[in-house]
């Protein structure tokens, strides 16, 4: 099945998907009902929670989450530990909420607890963030990663997962004014901590960030196997997905490894190379 998906939707080899967890989608454009992408398509995100084609595991049942921008600057969040396919509130909410910019995520835990606080997306003020991938040997460097979060942001740390920690660390390093640079610097620090701890595991990173005006999506890995990530643009509407939600392969383009997609409400989407700077190993 993975081979079919790789041939259908992009130029990546099937091996590119080894070791990836979770599935997500992000949308920015004319307001639509969340159900149009989260629930309705044949390979919707709810369907992918049970039958993912391009992940390490086909089942992503360790919770789910929605985040959407509406009339206020801060996004609304709904997160739950039940599997997406068995939560009637998820379908009802998606049928009623219309948004111009929203995130949705189904989770497959890489070792941290299945709690609401560990479900994506994460929010802080007007900022929203979600992630698919892995921090190799996270349990060995968790405390060191948390030390990257300053005291004034650490009170916002509610969960125990790597994604929230990276999000808060990047916020401290200028995520609002320089999203691409802040994420790059944060990943460099995390990778240095992994090296210092003697980890031989990869750092794999597919993520989406928004401040309500911009949608910025990353696909990067320290090895040759970044998590899958695709995008489509039609009449100014941008959709980014872990794997396509429908059977229209000609409309989906794989985001190249080590690239970032940048879109805003006032400019066309563009792809740029994404480079994680070299960082000196930090003590474990």
Automatic annotation (TrEMBL):
InterPro entries: EgtC-like, Gamma-glu_amide_hydrolase, GATase_2_dom, Ntn_hydrolases_N. CDD domains: YafJ. It comes from the Bacteria. It comes from Falsiroseomonas stagni DSM 19981. One of its GO terms (molecular function) is transferase activity. This is Glutamine amidotransferase. The lineage of its organism: Bacteria, Pseudomonadati, Pseudomonadota, Alphaproteobacteria, Acetobacterales. Keywords: Glutamine amidotransferase, Transferase. Signal peptide: none annotated. Pfam families: GATase_4. Residues 22-284 form the Glutamine amidotransferase type-2 domain.
């Amino acid at each position: 099945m993975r081979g079919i998906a790789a041939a259908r939707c992009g130029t990546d080899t099937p091996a590119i998907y080894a070791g990836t967890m979770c599935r997500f989608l992000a949308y920015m454009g004319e307001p639509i009902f969340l159900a149009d992408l989260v629930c309705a398509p044949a390979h919707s995100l709810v369907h992918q929670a049970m039958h993912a084609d391009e992940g390490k595991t086909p089942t992503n049942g360790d919770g789910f989450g929605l985040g959407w921008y509406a009339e206020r600057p801060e996004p609304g969040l709904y997160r739950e530990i039940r599997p997406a396919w068995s939560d009637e509130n998820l379908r009802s909410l998606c049928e009623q909420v219309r948004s111009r910019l929203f995130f949705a995520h189904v989770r497959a835990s890489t070792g941290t607890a299945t709690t609401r606080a560990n479900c994506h997306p994460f929010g802080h003020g007007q900022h929203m963030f979600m992630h698919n991938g892995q921090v190799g040997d996270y349990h060995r460097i968790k405390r060191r990663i948390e030390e990257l979060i300053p005291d004034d942001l650490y009170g916002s740390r509610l969960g125990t997962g790597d994604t929230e920690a990276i999000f808060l660390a990047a916020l401290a390093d200028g995520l609002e004014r320089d999203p691409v640079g802040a994420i790059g610097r944060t990943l460099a620090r995390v990778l240095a901590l992994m090296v210092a701890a003697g980890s031989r595991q990869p750092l794999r990173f597919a993520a989406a960030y928004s401040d309500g005006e911009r949608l910025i999506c990353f696909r990067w890995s320290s090895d040759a196997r970044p998590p899958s990530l695709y995008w489509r643009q039609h009449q100014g509407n941008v959709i980014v997905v872990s794997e396509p939600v429908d059977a229209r392969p000609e409309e989906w383009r794989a985001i190249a490894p080590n690239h970032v997609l940048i879109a805003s409400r006032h400019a066309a989407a563009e792809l740029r190379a994404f480079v994680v700077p070299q960082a000196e190993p930090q003590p474990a």
